[in-house]
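Researcher: Structure prediction, please.
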Amino acid sequence: GDPLGNPAMATATILLAVAATSCAHAFQPSLLPLTSTRISSSSPFPSSSSSAGYRSIPSRARAWRCSARDDGRRTVEETRVNRREAAVVLSSIVLLPTLTSAAAQDDVKLPLAPPGGPRNIVITGSSSGIGKDAACKLAAGGYNVFLACRTMEKAMEARDSVEEEVKLLASKAGRSPGELTAMECDLSSLSSIKKFADEWNKSGKPIDVLVLNAGVALNTGARPPPPRTKDGFEVTVGTNHLGHFYLTNLLLPAVEKSSAAPRIVVTASQVHDPSSPGGNVGSKATLGDMQGLAAGIDWEMVDGGGWDADKAYKDSKLCNVLFTRELQRRLEDKGSKVTCNCFSPGLITRTGLFRDQGGFFLSAFDFIANNVVRVAETVSFGGDCLVTMAVSDALEGKRGVFWSNSKPGKHTFEEVEVSAEAKDAQKARRLWELSEQAIALALKKQQA
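Model: Predicted structure follows.
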């Protein structure tokens, strides 16, 4: 999901916090709405119906007290953090009556695999969030899904956690489920990517759909120096763009082996566009002349500037869109039947993408986005978006396009325009060339 910002969200957060701060000394945990799942198999496309579910927040299931030092004095930071957290929980109590009828419960829509044998779908970043949700639905619909996760442990946990649901959904649809296979592929390690690709290529299996979904989004308040991948790249662009760039180039022969209409799907984001609601808040995406990436490995930002965690994520999403368009151009130039498209599932706060954000920020942002300004989407909706990109007839013949939730919070999903910079074909070619050079340098450094 997109960690996008919005002035309305910030305003609502402040108002709620101010109203509650004076009462934020000690009270019991509240309940927040939780989207639950109802099983259905009527259609592969999103829809919803009204219902409501609630859960308590374990991390908040205690009286709100400031931590004390051994000498009994409270720190200013402790006081501020606890009052802010208290304000968020109190605001949920105040608004709870208005939420009961607004909480939605999403139906699960199964994408039924066509006859002619199971098709193979590889999904990176499938241990949580929309990747895991889509993997469950696709496997239940009869597709063979390969869970490419950062560690084998995460991949096996993801597989084991959805196996029973896959069987139940498939049974209700009167179908045999596809296979779920756990595999390790750490997008922040070129060695791990190479090992994954070598293992796949040796198997001789075709890839009918390759979904590049894994993503890293660091805390926007993080300070330099930037974390780095195992090969020395800034971790956000290094994982979100360079890791997937390398993986795609290694797996492309397997994708071209598909006897169907093979697809490559890239999870991008509306925040690649500085004119979008999320892209115009905070730092803006731009790759400039890419002098940072041109320098090789030890850059902090693609444009050569100082590290900015917010901008790094948005830049990585711009790289995703440019990569999609340039890959499609290259595929067409050589007459390949493979198509490549990208999409944005919208703002989805309840995924692993937000794992690096602070606890207070995440609680407040999640509450406001989902229940006050209502611009967030559900994980189930995001999974449906991924499923649509991967197997829907609506994408048949589409090449190099970008789909998005055009009306945040309204469950709309359609083709939209990309940013002006993302349309720059010359920049897309240059990004491809510099990405090849940077990876070649990193691989050479490994061998030294």
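Model: The chain has a mean pLDDT of 78.
Researcher: Thanks, that helps.
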